[in-house]
Write a structure and sequence with these properties.
The chain has 49 residues and is mainly alpha-helical. It has one helix and no strands. It starts with a helix and ends in a 37-residue tail after the last helix.
Amino acid sequence: MRTVAEHRAAVLGLVRPLGTERVPVGAALGRVLAEFGYANEQYREPEKN
């Protein structure tokens, strides 16, 4: 009989991280960011001094 640690190692040996994809903000609900997001220059508010 396998231990929990052995089963875990076997399962983790079969899976790989998913790649990234670009999706519109409205379609991203429930997803996790793979990298930092930013607004294009035209959508940024001017910096206040």
